[in-house]
Write a structure and sequence with these properties.
Layout: H1 4-26, H2 105-146, H3 150-162, H4 168-185, H5 188-201, H6 208-221, H7 225-241, H8 247-267, H9 271-281, H10 288-304, H11 308-321, H12 328-341, H13 345-357, H14 365-385, H15 389-400, H16 406-422, H17 426-440, H18 454-457, H19 462-491
Length: 540
């Protein structure tokens, strides 16, 4: 008994081990793995790298939550006890190398891979959709700005600024777009503040030179010329520090900044400095339109500086070199005034008549007509006031042929009548005055009924009504002067025979003025006096 018990004690572990082996053979399925033996699934990053500045709420996007393995102590996944479908129906298990166990590490990895494949595309799709929305809002804001829909454009850019999905580049572009909306809208103070914020928050952005240029223009429009000059010089300095990837664009910005510096001096009244900068720009490799503009602005600065001789020289060279430029009519206006200031009357007249007789070749038709009228009217009035009635009459006749509009032609016709009246060509003057009356208040022959139309029933404007009143008064003055001259001639005639009235054949040709009825002088106005009554040879 003493020897047998230690033997049994020594064999007990062996028996227990054999029992375990026997038990393992009887059960073909391996025991379920402990939950702690699963491989942990790495977390899935849903947010794209550019969205790192704005974390999303995981409660709103459940698919973006990190997938973790089950905690220790939880129930393990169910074990599949059925044999592989391709295996024969026997009571023995298939070899371990061919068995597919749902609870094996290989199966867990397969499920994890399937879960990642089903989760990552959905998260990527959400991120791409957010990017499309941001880009769409940016393009919409730019389009609305071009269409001058300021309120809608502001809303589009502010939605980007408030979006949690917008990255730094999106915010910078939206801020710059909002500043441009305010600037084009006319809210210059707001625009300047937004530009300042952009430059402070994004000092290294590639659009900094553009923002500096636009800020300088905004400050100049606000009257802060010195601040604007500082911004334009900053544009030139900033383009030298940036990379050479957009070198062509930066070169254009630098030249534009020089142009703006010259324009700022011009608007500030520093014409000598402006002429200096514009003269330098003429020597640069600029586009033809920019070189022509610099040439014209240089001449304009000389004219405003009252350097008339230099202005005439520069304007003449400009007109010869750039005959198709849009500033040609204004240049001829400045040339006429400069020649008149130098007392070169005939050359001033020739320059004015050339402008009036030259048909528009380029540019805006309204702009061309404006400078034709302004040049002719100013020079003609100047000649008339100085007593050079002949030259004034020539310009007025050219002005009357510019357009058939009554609002323009009739006042010019009145001035023509004044010229004829001063030259003592009373018949021509009366014809001019009567044509004004007949145009504004046409008469109806006896026995006929005037047709009622929109034009006939419409009341004339206040200016034309006043012009008719003045023309009637001038007719009365001419009639009074003629009667007075005949009476005085009859009294002081030596032989008692009255002097005959001059015939119309002794007068020069009248301007091309439409007239439909014969001129009938009106009665002499009572208690009225004219500021421009013509002189007579009568001696009372």
């Amino acid at each position: 008994m003493i020897l047998r018990q230690p033997l049994i004690t020594c064999l007990s572990p062996l028996v227990i081990l054999m029992a375990g082996v026997s038990t393992g053979l009887a059960n073909p399925d391996p025991p379920a793995e402990s939950p702690t033996e699963h491989h942990s699934v790495p977390p899935i990053e849903v947010a794209a790298p550019h969205e790192a500045l704005h974390a999303e709420n995981p409660l709103e996007h459940p698919e973006s939550q990190t997938v973790h393995p089950p905690a220790a102590g939880t129930e393990a996944p169910a074990v599949n006890h059925e044999p592989h479908p391709s295996a024969p129906a026997t009571e023995h298990s298939v070899p371990e190398s061919h068995a597919v166990d749902a609870s094996s590490p290989e199966s867990a990895k397969k499920k994890t891979a399937e879960g990642e494949a089903s989760t990552i595309p959905e998260a990527t799709q959400t991120s791409e959709q957010a990017r499309r929305e941001i880009i769409g809002l940016q393009n919409l804001g730019v389009s609305l700005t071009e269409r001058s829909d300021w309120d809608a454009a502001e809303i589009a850019f502010r939605q980007i600024l408030k979006s949690p999905r917008a990255n730094g580049g999106d915010l910078a572009n939206a801020l710059l777009g909002l500043a441009r909306v305010y600037r084009r809208q006319g809210s210059l103070t707001k625009a300047a503040a937004i530009y300042e914020r952009y430059l402070k928050d994004y000092p290294s952005a590639v659009a900094v030179p553009d923002a500096l240029l636009e800020l300088g223009r905004t400050q100049r429009a606000l009257g802060a010329h010195q601040l604007a000059l500082a911004r334009f010089y900053s544009v030139i300095n900033s383009t030298l520090k940036l990379s050479s990837e957009n070198s062509e664009h930066y070169q254009v910005l630098a030249k534009t900044a020089q142009f703006e510096i010259a324009e700022t001096h011009f608007q500030d009244g520093n014409y000598a400095e402006a002429n200096k900068f514009f003269s330098r720009l003429r020597l640069l490799d600029l586009a033809p339109a920019d070189r022509a503009r610099a040439h014209f602005k240089s001449a304009d600065a000389l004219f405003r500086e009252k350097e008339f001789a230099a202005a005439v020289k520069t304007l003449t060279s400009y007109l010869e070199q750039w005959p198709q430029d849009e500033n040609v009519p204004e240049a001829r206006y400045l040339l006429s005034l400069s020649l008149r200031a130098l007392d070169r009357k005939q050359e001033a007249l020739d320059a004015t008549l050339t402008l009036l007789r030259t048909a528009q070749t380029s540019g805006d038709p309204k702009r061309w007509t404006y400078w034709q009228r302004r040049t002719g009217n100013q020079l003609a009035n100047d000649f008339f006031q100085s007593g050079d009635t002949h030259h004034a009459l020539m310009i007025y006749q050219g002005l009357s042929a510019l357009t058939p509009e009554p609002e323009w032609r009739l006042p010019v016709t009145y001035q023509i009548g004044l010229c004829y009246e001063r030259m003592r060509l009373y018949d021509r003057a009366m014809t001019a005055y009567q044509s004004i009356i007949d145009t504004v208040t046409p008469s109806t022959p006896a026995g006929e009924v005037q047709p009622k139309s929109a034009e006939s029933t419409a009341a004339p404007s206040t200016e034309l009504s006043e012009l008719v009143h003045m023309a009637k008064w001038r007719l009365g003055q001419i009639d009074w002067h003629e009667k007075t001259e005949h009476q005085l001639a009859a009294v002081f005639s030596s032989n008692g025979e009255p002097t005959t009235k001059p015939t119309a054949g002794t007068h020069t040709s009248a301007p091309n003025i439409d007239t439909n009825v014969s001129s009938q002088p009106t009665p002499t106005p009572v208690n009225e006096h004219s500021g421009n009554s013509p002189k007579t040879s009568a001696r009372l």
